[in-house]
Automatic annotation (TrEMBL):
Topology term for the membrane: Multi-pass membrane protein
Spans through the membrane: 54-73, 85-108, 114-132, 141-162, 168-189, 228-247, 267-289, 301-324, 331-351, 357-377, 398-419, 475-494
Domain of life: Bacteria
Entry protein name: EmrB/QacA subfamily drug resistance transporter
Lineage, top ranks: Bacteria, Thermotogati, Deinococcota, Deinococci, Deinococcales
Keywords associated with the record: Membrane, Transmembrane, Transmembrane helix
Subcellular location field: Membrane
Pfam families: MFS_1
Domain Major facilitator superfamily (MFS) profile: 16-498
GO cellular component: membrane
Length: 503
């Protein structure tokens, strides 16, 4: 029997889809495309490893900490209104990023960008869910996902091309016409809200301090060691997390209801998310630095390096999601993260050019992520029942972003320490007891922007590049271990069917 034709989208649904795709694409792009530009940013603004890390982490911190509060604010005040505020703030912050005269100014503008993203990202699916008819809601989400995936797929390549032919500043300026288009179209979208919703600002402030203190302490430790300021940052993080837990147990409208953590499947899938997406966030940041600084890739080529990952994720996620629905998620959430872990490790372990050193790891990583993403999302949302699926998805989204923030800082600490030791060893072998060797080793926090003295032999430059390759290999293997641990978590926690977990 032939399937009846799909009902055409209404004008409200078409405008909502256009606005949400354009707006959310800005936030998705700026979560990844900056990684490709980071080498140029570090060189032009004379940034250390800590400064370069915070260009990424300032955005991730504010988005991870405020995304749940941003969603609740949209529910309370109107999703279209808050979405518009987020787009406008994101655009203004993008302009400030592109004009930033120093790394400090860029970090501050990136933090404001993260606040804007926290206002607009949760509103995307919320507006689709509220505006689309029940019979077409799945279609609307699918179209949004497909269009957003294409934008995210092309983003790093386009960003690399902008860096190569122009300047890293154009990576931020490109957001301005997109934001203008969203704000022009936005009045065509109907306003929706959920009366009674209210943001948990105390919880948001506490988790911001906690995540910021932890990331700041780990980043500083790589440059200055475990001094009083570093330990003070750790103390601040612990105190803030303690306040967060105390507040969430007592407030009437918590952003993270404590009862969620009694559900075994919910806890397990978020642990898997923390491990896997932490590894992905760190490798996504440090791989372009490695390819550009140590392997001589152009920014465009570095941006295209993980295209196999994106293509496999886009083409196979639906198939593996359907298979997981039919056979259960346990096998997929065990094998997928473990396979992704193998891909992370391969990215740092294989010699040669792109096709022998990067492509195999990108393919294995892509297969692992494709096996994981759809079953993970489905299991997370199903872990709390249909009535709380939005809460489950929102928390998991926040965990994924917080995972990248923490892993970038923690593996960045490992990267700098390993790089410092490798620099000393390789320079000692290349130039012996040259008087300037210790000064070059002391520049390890500059990562790929180490400055050699005039007249240094080519062997010294080769040693610097080889030392950074050694350091990245350690990070890639550590990320691989995180992926494998995620697979172990998936296999152990889902040994019972999700519907029985937590009973």
């Amino acid at each position: 029997m032939p399937r009846p034709p799909a009902t055409p989208l209404t004008p409200d649904e078409r405008w909502t889809l256009a606005v949400t795709v354009l707006g959310s694409s800005m936030a998705f792009l700026d979560g990844t495309v900056v990684n490709v530009a980071l080498s140029a940013v570090q060189r032009d603004l004379n940034a250390t490893a800590g400064g370069a890390t915070w260009v990424v982490n300032a955005y991730a911190l504010m988005l991870a900490a405020l995304i749940l509060a941003g969603g609740a604010l949209g529910d309370a005040l109107g999703r279209r209104r808050v979405y518009g505020w987020g787009v406008a703030l994101f655009a203004l912050a993008s302009l400030a990023c592109g004009l930033a005269p120093s790394v400090g100014a860029l970090i501050a503008a990136r933090a404001v960008q993260g606040v804007g993203a926290a206002l607009l990202v949760p509103g995307s699916l919320a507006m689709i869910g509220a505006v689309f008819d029940d019979a077409r809601r799945g279609r609307g989400v699918g179209l949004w996902s497909a269009a957003s995936s294409v934008m995210t797929l092309l983003g790093p390549v386009a960003g690399g091309a902008l860096v190569d032919v122009g300047s890293w500043r154009w990576v931020f300026f490109i957001n301005l016409p997109l934001a203008a288009a969203v704000l022009w179209l936005l009045p065509r979208v109907p306003e929706t809200r959920a009366p009674g919703a209210r943001p948990d600002w105390v919880g948001a402030a506490a988790v911001t301090l906690g995540l910021g203190g932890l990331a700041g302490a780990l980043t500083r430790a790589g440059e200055a060691g475990w001094d009083a300021l570093t330990l003070g940052g750790l103390g601040l993080a612990l105190a803030a997390f303690g306040v967060f837990g105390w507040w969430e147990a007592r407030t009437r409208a918590p952003m993270l209801p404590p009862a969620l953590w009694r559900n075994r499947t919910f806890v397990g899938t978020n642990l898997l998310t923390l491990l896997l997406y932490g590894a992905l966030g760190a490798v996504g940041l440090y791989l372009p630095l490695y390819l550009i600084g140590a392997r001589g890739f152009s920014a465009t080529a570095a941006g295209a390096a993980l295209l196999p990952l994106s293509l496999l994720l886009a083409t196979l996620s639906g198939t593996f999601g359907a298979l997981a629905d039919r056979h259960g998620p346990r096998l997929f959430l065990s094998a997928g993260p473990a396979l992704a872990g193998a891909g992370f490790a391969l990215l740092g372990a294989l010699p040669g050019g792109y096709w022998t050193a990067v492509f195999p790891g990108a393919v294995v990583l892509g297969l692992g992520m494709a096996l994981t993403v759809a079953p993970l999302s489905s299991t997370v949302m199903g872990s709390l029942g249909r009535e709380q699926s939005g809460v489950a998805s929102g928390v998991n989204n926040a965990v994924a972003r917080a995972a990248g923030l923490i892993a970038v800082a923690a593996l960045g600490l490992l990267l700098v320490g390993t790089y410092r030791a490798a620099l000393d060893t390789r320079l000692r072998s290349a130039v012996g007891q040259a008087s300037w060797r210790a000064g070059v080793v002391a520049q390890a926090p500059r990562l790929t922007d180490v400055r050699l003295p005039p007249g240094a032999p080519q062997a010294a430059q080769d040693a610097v590049r080889a030392a950074f390759a050694d350091a990245f290999r350690t990070v890639a293997l550590s990320a691989g271990l995180l992926g494998v641990l995620g697979g172990v978590a998936g296999g152990l926690i889902l040994r019972r069917p999700p519907e029985d977990a937590g009973r």
